[in-house]
Amino acid sequence: MPALFTILSEIMEISNQKRSKKIKRLFNLIGIAIVLVGLVFLWLKMDVWLLIAAATFAVYLGFAQFATLYYVYFCTDNGKVLIRYYPVISLLKKEYESIEFQHQSLLSFRLAKSMGFTDLEIVIKTKRGVAEYPPISLVALHKSEIELIEKELNAILNSRIGR
What we know:
Number of helices: 3
Structural class: alpha+beta
Order of helices and strands: EEHHEEEEEEEH
Largest sheet: 5 strands, antiparallel
Shape: elongated
């Protein structure tokens, strides 16, 4: 079930804010647990196990950065598409990104799937030519939310081509 899904006279909104908060909370709890276990090994002077806990923590942080879990807000309203996104888990500062374009500017989109991850790639027409946006990771969205985004973008493309 999508966290937020509304269709009201050509308005569509999808947001994974609640799920993003749960992911971040779980990430923090697991990280704290690994650190606490490491501190116990340090206190008990179990150096080998301490090194294993430290390596586990490093791999855990590396995986979190590799997975690129994004908070995603997708909205279509008044002939425009707005996509806002930022990493749910970021070791450095968060980079807030936003894409906004008119429906008629959409040239193509693609849902690229690899290793269980789905990325949204968007190409639009601008005054200066064609702009291809960097892929947006949709890993933190439910499958049904990804399907709704795909359906909406297909509808925009079909209405654009139909004119």
